[in-house]
Amino acid sequence: MIPLRKNIARMAGYVPGYQPEDPAAYIKLNTNENAYPPSPKVLEAIVAEVGEGLRRYPDASSRAAREAAARLYGFPTEWIVMANGSDEVLNNLIRAFADADDEIAYVYPSYSYYATLAEIQGARVRTYGLTDDWKLADFPDCYDGKIFFLTNPNAPYGFTFTQEFIEELAGRVAGMLVIDETYADFAGDTALDLVRRYENVVVTRTLSKSYSLAGMRLGLAVARPEVIAALDKIRDHYNLDRLAQAAAVAALSDQEYFREAVRKICATRDWFSAELRNMRYAVIPSSGNYVFVTPPDRNGARVYQGLFDRKILVRHFSDPNLAHGLRISIGTREEMEKTIAAMREIG
Ligand SMILES: *Cc1c(COP(=O)(O)O)cnc(C)c1O
Predict the structure, then answer these.
(1) Which of 33, 206, 240 to probe ligand 1 with, by most ligand atoms within 8 A of CB?
(2) Which atom of ligand 1 is nearest to the CA of 87?
(3) Most buried of 101, 110, 125, 275, CB within 10 angstroms?
(4) 128-160 tens-digit pLDDT
């Protein structure tokens, strides 16, 4: 027997969304990737970086990328840390704040990867459910765990918590309040201002979804310099390679391209939601680049299979609380028209 730590031996490990071997054969709406390619300026910046310079280590602090993010979000550079996907910074937040046997918590349902990361650390996990009107159920006046993760907009449902409520939470969380703003660019609402006003608030962002760069693994956190300094101690010192750093600067600097892609996705989402409501689907109003929808017979697995047979991949969760529905990422208008046609056929 290899001498594994007990919690590693015990844990199941996270299962990411299905990535088919031949993605081009599918309309792929299962992992909330962006429907559009990255900005042409990003591709140019990556190509320009490919060359003999690759024998040199990248800038350990990702300075240029942090400066681009700092300009965009209106913070000093010392308030930003870049990450190899926001998953990396979520992991490092747990490592920084939660010892073995400390507790972290998150909203159920949201991003279950927080639980996997906590298990690796040996931390305990608590979840808080939702009421029918999308409020936190039974959240205490003072939550005394080490971190509370709030995914806003919520995934997989797509609703948002109000900024007033998030500010109230900042006061009710004794430890750190981490707002996972993976989908905030599609919502147009952000808790970044709370980072300035509450020392326990951290906002995480990613370039995977709204900037079409899931394949580059680029995320970041905005937090007080003391928090950033701690995260800097923990991360791999060269966590972003040269191509990723060049891509981050170019992507964050091309706001015009970014805004247009986000605008198209939101317009398609609203059109798609209306079409499905006409087909008597229940559609939760979404602020993300995905919608959670429930067919009239509440049989998500049936519609999933019908779509899969037509080479359309969406996300079906086996979790009994979610199995009645589907999470469908918003593709191009053309892809969503084909999806609607397929769903009409499936009935
Ligand atoms: C996609 C996603 C992430 C991970 O983003 P990466 O930057 O690609 O690691 C984190 N949180 C939520 C809620 C997500 O949906």
Answers:
(1) 206
(2) 9
(3) 110
(4) 999 999 999 999 999 999 999 999 999 999 999
Tell me, what amino acid is at 56? Answer: R
Best of 32, 90, 106, 111 for a ligand 1 pocket test (most atoms within 8 Å of beta carbon): 111
Residues with CB under 6 A from ligand 1: 32, 85-87, 111, 151, 155, 180, 182, 206, 208, 214, 219
Report d(CA 304, CA 23) in Å as an integer. 17
Which residues are 219's β-sheet partners? 83, 206
312 Cα to the center of ligand 1, angstroms: 22
Q: Go through the domains of the chain in sequence order and give each one's CATH number.
A: 6-30+256-346 (3.90.1150.10), 40-253 (3.40.640.10)
Give tens-digit pLDDT for 287-310.
999 999 999 999 999 999 999 999
Residue whose CA lies nearest to ligand 1 atom number 2: 182
Query: pTM above 0.70?
Result: yes
| CA 256 – ligand 1 centroid, Å | 23
Convert the pLDDT of each residue in 205-230 to its tens digit.
Answer: 999 999 999 999 999 999 999 999 99
pLDDT tens per residue, range 21-61:
998 899 999 999 999 999 999 999 999 999 999 999 999 99
